[in-house]
Each structure stands twice: as C-alpha cells, then as structure tokens.
Amino acid sequence: MIPRWLLLRAYRRLLRGYPDDFRRRFEREMLLDAHASFESAKTTTERLCLIARLMEDLTVSIPAEWLRHDRIRVAALAAVIHVMSWITVVVISWWQWPDAPSAIHVVGVFSGLALICVACVAARQHSSREQALTVKPT
Amino acid sequence: MSNPLTPAVFHVLLSLAAGARHGYAIMQDVAVHTNGKLRMGPGTLYGTIDRLIAATWVEEVEPEKSAQHDARRRYYALTRDGRRALDAEIERLEDAVRAARALRPASRRSRA
C-alpha cells in the first residue's frame, strides 16, 4: 500500500498547479483537509476512492481557478498552442500532400475562427460577482 | 426573480447557516446533507468559498474557543447578504416543489 506521507507529498506538488494567489490563501487548509481525509480512509479501497476523488477535483478546479484568476493568460496560452499546432499541420501537409495550398486555406479559416472564439472568451468578463454563483437559465 | 444557485454554493451556504465552520467541517456537512451524493473536493470547496467571500456572502471569522476549535484552520460564517441569498433560494426551491407536486397528479391522470 502507498504510504500516506507519499500521497500527501504528491498532493502538495499537484497543488502547485493552482494560481499563486489561490494557493497562498488555501494551500495549508487543503493539505489539512487531505490529511484528515486520508486519516479517515481506513481500507485500501477507501483510499483508492479518495485518491480518485482528489484527482477529479484537481482536474476540474485547477482550470476553473486559472480561468477565474487569469482569463487573459489562459486565452493567450490557448491561442499560442493553437497557432503552433496550425503551423505544424501546415508544414507537414506542405511536404506530404500535393494539394497542400487549398488545405492551408481551409485550415487557416478554421484557425482564424477558433482564434476569434478564444478572443471572445478572453474578452468576456463576469458582469457581476454574483453571476459566478448562480446557474444561468437557458 | 434571482437565478438558481449552483449546488456547491447552495450546500456551502446551507452548512454555514448553522454557524461558523472550517472547510473540512463544511465538506462533511455537505456529504451528510446530500446522503453522500455530493462530495466536494478541497479545490471545489475553497474555490466556492473564495467566490462567496468576493460576493460578500461569506466572511472569515474568529472562531469561538471551544473543545472542537482547531487553531490551524480558518473559520467562515454567513453574512447578512449570504443569509438573504440562501433564504431566497430556499423559497425558490419550495415554489418549484409546490408546482411539481401540483402537476404530478395531473400527469398521472393523463397517462391513465
């Protein structure tokens, strides 16, 4: 069975994924909570379930916190990744595919649309603080 | 009419309605209130608390010195705005349940 100290050390490392401001405020309490949860999980099955739950929580909450704290930087990173992958596709298709020029136009249009979407996400701000606390009816 | 609260926000407010709590106690309360159907992880919980503090629905408070007091932890309590938001949500849910109960016999009749 994996020792508790190793799990907590790994969890502490993973907490570095949160934005600095959030981590400064809540890291200690999150570690205390994880410690208490590991204490209460007695069997191996309970521990495995707990690890799965913590992983799921990190996977969901880290991007959410980045989007909340630094929306512009996340959007810029997404745009950079997008442009890099577009360049890779263009370079590969240029060498391997005789019909590359027309494909480049198609890829270019879609990339442009995707970048506009990213820019819209970056520009969208919460109109009020309470909006993040409620579900918007569709 | 206000928009419905997210389940995480509603259950955190509900837990704090009984008095000031630290994060782990809120997590346990939520699991008990929902019969284990909703288990909040630390990231989701403190993200929610952070947003609630920003919206001035929850505030950090000095805990009362008692046997269960844990000095290492921060305690959170509802503000007046938070209590008002919780009351509004409870009222909204009561209205929804009332409407659903009123409609249910009719839908049964139409099926028969």
* Structural class assignment of chain A: mainly alpha
Distance between the termini of chain A: 47 Å
Q: How much of the polypeptide of chain A forms β-strand, as a percent range?
A: under 5%
Quote the distance from N terminus to C terminus of chain B: 35 Å
| Overall radius of gyration of chain A | 21 Å
Shape, principal axes of CA atoms of chain B: elongated
Strand residue percentage of chain B: 5-15%
The coarse silhouette of chain A is elongated
The level of helicity of chain A is: over 70%
Query: Got a strand count of chain B?
Result: 3
* Poorly predicted parts of chain A: 126-130
Order of helices and strands of chain B: HEHHEEH
N to C succession of SSEs of chain A: HHHHH
Question: What is the fold's blueprint, element by element?
Answer:
The complex is a heterodimer of chains A (138) and B (112).
Chain A: H1 4-14, H2 20-40, H3 44-69, H4 71-96, H5 100-123
Chain B: H1 7-16, E1 21-22, H2 23-33, H3 42-54, E2 58-61, E3 75-78, H4 80-111
Top keywords for this entry?
heterodimer, A: 138 residues, mainly alpha, elongated, B: 112 residues, three-stranded antiparallel beta sheet, 4 helices, 9% strand
